[in-house]
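Researcher: Quick one. two chains, 387 residues in total.
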Amino acid sequence: MKLRRTMLYVPGNAPAMLRDAHIYGPDSVLFDLEDAVSPREKDAARHLVFQALRNYDYGGVERVVRINGLDTPYGLEDIAAVVSGGADVIRLPKTDSPEDIIAVERAVEAAERRFGRKPGSTALMAAIESARGILAAREIAAASPRLVAIAIGAEDFVTDLHTTRSPDGIELLAARSLLVMAARAAGIMAIDTVFTGVDDEEGFVREARLAKQLGFDGKSVIHPSQIVLAHGVWTPTPEELAKARRVVAAAADAEAKGSGVISLDGKMIDKPIVERALRVMALAGEVEA
Amino acid sequence: MNIVHEASSGTNESGDARITVSPNPSGGLSLELRGPSVARYGDDIRAAALSTLGSLGVTDATVSITEKGALDATIRARLAAACGRAADVGVTPWEAFK
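Model:
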């Protein structure tokens, strides 16, 4: 299973950071051509990201690029640069409708043909950052077979909702839950929003735990120090892993005996419990999900 | 790509380069390199610059590169951006880069 516990934002116009992004061990790096880059530097950032994709070895770390929307003067040229450079995933910001995804999918298809890249080789991810987008999350998540994940962008979302972010995140609860359900219904991943308090480790871990409990697969992060914290939240403890192994072993044993009933320590084990145990083992890298 | 006016790209920060491209009235390519890595890697920087100019079809230009430990990929990116700006070309021929 491809893990996406952490997706590290890297400003597209910062050459030294583009080079070193992967050394902190995120599951994915996220080169940003959108909000981190001023309008007059969009062209320069595009060239830097293109060259980084072409020339740097990220050691198998997934390379995601956040492009500008197709409703801006930059979106189409971003797609050309990023597909030509060979990005693994294109992340579309401010996705409000399935039509936004379909338009990007068409542009990516055309770029793959233009640059002789394998059709379908560029995956997509959609960030949803508005009430309209959250209410269309189900359709957005199912809009393209290229989609591997949907993400929530909280800063724009709470602004759209006429509120602000609070420490417990109550204002995001419904949106986060809807987003996770939409992702699960479409069989793709759900990625939580960034936590902007870089020095607030306790706050970050609290938010990451909440996201994990709600069902998210990981979190976008804005500082390397947040990577180890998030991995700590999403990686099973040795106890959880040991229990999961025993559940899966009991299920295998029951199947070998032709028994429909699985029991462990005198308790009956249901199919959902086996599924959860397999997921724990997948998060630990022990089995395919 | 036809260089029509002076334009720059990049910064003076560590790991970056500041590159200025301007028309060369006498024709051909004139390359000026400055920076801490030039003594050791000047040939590599020059080769990266010439290959980028070749990819973009820039045959007449004065190019000034001030690098602060920039890798070849950064030199290529900064030069390509400066050329696009100096030629007033908004769409890059990405397939031209090898």
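Chain A has two domains: 6-234, 238-283.
Researcher: Thanks, that's what I needed.
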